[in-house]
What we know:
Elements: H1 10-14, E1 17-18, H2 30-35, H3 42-58, H4 68-79, E2 92-96, E3 103-106, E4 110-114, H5 115-120, H6 124-139, H7 142-145, H8 147-153, H9 156-168, H10 172-179, H11 184-187, H12 194-210, H13 217-234, H14 253-264, H15 274-281, E5 285-286, E6 294-296, E7 299-302, E8 307-310, E9 316-319, E10 324-327, E11 332-337, H16 344-356, E12 367-371, E13 374-385, E14 388-399, E15 403-412, H17 420-425, E16 427-428, H18 431-435, E17 440-446, H19 453-457, H20 466-474, E18 487-492
Parallel strand pairs: 2-4
Antiparallel strand pairs: 1-3, 3-4, 5-17, 6-7, 7-8, 8-16, 9-10, 10-11, 11-15, 12-13, 13-14, 14-15, 17-18
Amino acid sequence: MTRRFKLLAAIATAGASVLVLGSDLAAPRAEALAMQAQAITAREKSQGAEAHPKLLEEFGGAYQVPQTSYVVQVGKGIAVQSGLGNARDDFTVTLLNSPVNNAFAIPGGYIYVTRQLMALMNDEAELAGVLGHEVGHVAARHSEKRQKAAQRNSIIGLLGQIGAAVLLGDSAAGQLGQQLFGTGSQLLTLKYSRKQEEEADDLGVRYLAQAGYDPQALSSMLASLAAQQAMDVRAQGGDARSVPEWASTHPDPARRVSRAATIARKFSGTTRNRDVFLTRLDGLLYGDDPKQGMVQGREFLHPELGLKFAVPQGFSMQNGTSAVTVNGQSAQAQFTLGSFNGDLARYVDQAFSALGGNQRIDYGQIQRTTVNGLPAAYATARVNANRQLVDVTVFAYQFAGNRAYHFVALTPAGQSGVFSPMYQSVRRLAGAEAAQIKPRRVRVVDVQRGDTLQRLASRMAYDDLKVERFMALNGLATNSSLVPGQKVKIVTY
């Protein structure tokens, strides 16, 4: 979480496309689409240039490490297969410093992959396949075809039933829905149709073959992503990064894996570049970046800001660059910061003003208290939106150095107390405790004679699901055999 909080509304109009496992799938017009690919237009270049810096802010910024130039090389190599541009310089490829399994492309030749998704890959062809799928969305102009639907549904999917009522309200509540939950830039793209997702898969497979890669790579990557998502669901309360079920309409992941494999059999290509890829991958940051704060189980810890808090049982967290989003079935919240002049009451008022936009939210009296030695202030407003009552709470804390942070929460009317344990959990992160927080990294090791899945998995830097994490990370099954000299990935401190 950085020191800024801004909704990336421009991303909706730029039409970002995201590779999320649960995306809808469907139809076969890839050959015609590939032949009809049109060059990047001036309008698309303008759209992409406008959205690019906002996307960097939302997804942790560009990750400038030795692996970056390699990702750029592979990304541009697969993107030129689309016919959108005639030269590699027509494309901008970015490795993002994000702990979320994600990849996307936007009009204008901008292509992105997160370091977390890269860590899940097992060879260069899978990296090319993921980016090829996303470029396929852009080549097919899918973003233009869903423009109106995206503008209508971008935030609704995030806020669930309560948030939908807020967003659809024609008052201050409308502004509220737009200010909250900036991670909508990720989730709004779950609205691709089944047909569009299958078209993007087909194009991605075609691009792989054209570039000489094994066209089965997209299928194997999707299988790894399915295994990782299943493992994340088991680890809820741990480091889960799965999309909440209520935010999407997921199809059967197995169907997408098998379909991509079937399409790939129509093409030829053999290059995987496994060892080259794994050698380049070694040392990559894995999971949260301590500089942006870390999610550990139900706790959020930020060693640089010197704070921590815990979410209630049954809630999950998504750590973004500008805020920590807390999700539940009927209640959501964000933890962020604002401008602070030493007056907490004024700070709370400013937070409500920012939510209300041009219309004032009547929040009643501001209450003052102390939480774990921290001066705090809070207030709750009841908003009537589309004949539904919603409680909006701002709970703020003053830290040393004239800093303040706050929660903004949406709950059904009368249920704001669901977050009371979270509000009371905020505390300073002591120096000794902060010093113990270390980043995790991917390390590539050679299998030794006598190594087993269990022995290698025991080296994973986690307290739970070590074997499951190791298998998902390496695309292995319980009956997979290991060969001495084979390269595998582990996650260590």
